[in-house]
């Protein structure tokens, strides 16, 4: 099955074979793809050679149904020999361990699916183990997102084992999944040798220690790993010791481009060491330090690195860091000396007139463009103020709109609901008076 027509026929045959009614959501999305292909033919844009199957359950404007374990069996029968569907979005549904095991079986037999998103469903360690086991033989999957499913230590260990064997997976998201110290250390150890994984999300593990052992293992891995490009370590209770260990080992790494240390406990001392890394112009292009404790001194250290040495950093996030006017003005001054930094997020700190005026100048000169920052300036009674605008970094990670100009390419657009016509009849009562 290599086109939408054969995919629809396969879906109908699967429902007949399983003796179940057609799942309305799957049928509607396949029909929408069929209509899009007809439209492309009318507009002479040619046929699509692959399809993104959107079945997310977080948009009631598209459907009120949620994908269940039984629907996963229909998907398995439909896609086991399918070459047309290359990515599947199943987030925010009600898939349990049974459904996850079916999806694992699908990944074992289908070598053409390149991306699958199962974040925020209802499966745990057994379902994660089934999916991880499929990675031992799968050679097609490149992106896997399981964020928000409580796979725990057993699930995390299963993925650590899979990464020893699988040489095609490029992005793994197991953040907010109740990972523990054991599986975090296992993942860091495996990634010393793995060269194919380019992005890893291990946000919000369940840690019972304050000694930062997992952070230390990840920093040692960073020193020798030559494949990882993106690393997310939010909510690791990381302190200055962890930040210093990162700084010591990032000096030796020139492949990591995105480091997310959001929502930790890094203060000015840890920031000072990270600023030293920025001065050396490593491969780092995105640094997320939001929701830490940088304050003015930490911001000044970053400003010094940005304004005088760094020519590679493109995006910096320092929201909600208790930074005052002194630190923010230092960042604004650094922007005048640095042309590489194009994205900056600073909301949640302390603004005064000098800060508003400094960043207003950058906004009006388009040194900071509207889509690359979280602030916008406005004037009231001749006085300049800053306001919050935009969703910040990674705007479509959890949710994407289905209307307007901010709809990503992979998101299915919804139909505009016509407004009700509430016309009030005008009655002339002059003759009644």
UniProtKB/TrEMBL annotation:
List the Pfam families hit by this protein, alphabetically: LRR_6 (PF13516)
Report the InterPro entries cross-referenced here.
Leu-rich_rpt (IPR001611), LRR-containing_regulator (IPR052201), LRR_dom_sf (IPR032675)
Q: Does the keyword Repeat apply?
A: yes
Keywords for the protein's UniProt record, in alphabetical order: Repeat
Give a yes or no for keyword Repeat in this entry.
yes
Q: Which domain of life is it from?
A: Eukaryota
Q: What is this protein called?
A: Leucine-rich repeat-containing protein 34
């Amino acid at each position: 099955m290599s086109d939408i027509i054969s995919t629809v026929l396969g879906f109908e045959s699967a429902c007949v074979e399983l003796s179940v009614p057609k799942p309305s959501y799957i049928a509607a999305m396949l029909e929408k793809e069929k209509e899009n292909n007809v439209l492309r033919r009318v507009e002479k844009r040619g046929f699509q050679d692959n399809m993104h199957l959107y079945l997310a359950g977080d948009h009631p404007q598209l459907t009120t149904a949620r994908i269940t374990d039984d629907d996963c069996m229909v998907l398995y029968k439909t896609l086991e020999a399918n070459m047309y569907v290359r990515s599947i979005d199943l987030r925010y549904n009600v898939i349990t361990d049974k459904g996850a095991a079916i999806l694992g079986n699908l990944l074992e037999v289908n070598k053409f699916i390149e991306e699958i998103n199962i974040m925020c469903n209802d499966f745990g360690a057994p379902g994660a183990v089934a999916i991880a086991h499929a990675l031992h033989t799968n050679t097609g999957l490149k992106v896997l997102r399981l964020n928000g499913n409580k796979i725990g230590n057993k699930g995390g260990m299963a993925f650590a084992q899979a990464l020893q064997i699988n040489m095609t997976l490029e992005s793994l998201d197991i953040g907010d999944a109740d990972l523990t110290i054991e599986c975090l250390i296992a993942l860091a150890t495996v990634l010393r040798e793995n060269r194919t994984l380019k992005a890893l999300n291990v946000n919000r593990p369940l840690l019972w220690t304050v000694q930062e052992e997992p952070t230390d293992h990840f920093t040692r891995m960073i020193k020798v790993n030559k494949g990882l490009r993106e690393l997310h370590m939010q909510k690791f209770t990381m302190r200055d010791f962890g930040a210093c260990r990162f700084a010591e080992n990032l000096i030796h790494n020139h492949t990591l481009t995105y480091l997310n240390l959001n929502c930790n406990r890094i203060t000015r001392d840890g920031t000072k060491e990270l600023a030293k890394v920025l001065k050396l112009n490593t491969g780092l292009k995105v640094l997320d330090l939001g929701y830490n404790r940088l304050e003015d001194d930490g911001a000044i250290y970053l400003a010094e690195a940005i304004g005088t040495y760094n020519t590679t950093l493109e995006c910096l996030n320092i929201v909600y860091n208790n930074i005052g006017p002194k630190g923010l003005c230092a960042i604004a001054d650094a922007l005048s000396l640095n042309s590489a930094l194009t994205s900056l997020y600073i909301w949640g700190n302390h603004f005064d007139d000098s800060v508003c005026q400094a960043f207003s100048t950058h906004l009006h000169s388009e040194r900071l463009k509207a889509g690359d920052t979280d602030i916008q300036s406005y004037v009231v009674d001749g006085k300049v103020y800053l306001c919050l605008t935009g969703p910040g970094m990674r705007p479509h990670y959890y949710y994407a709109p289905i209307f307007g100009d901010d709809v990503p390419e992979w998101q299915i657009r919804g139909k505009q609901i016509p407004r009700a016509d509430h016309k009030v009849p005008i009655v002339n009562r002059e003759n009644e008076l």
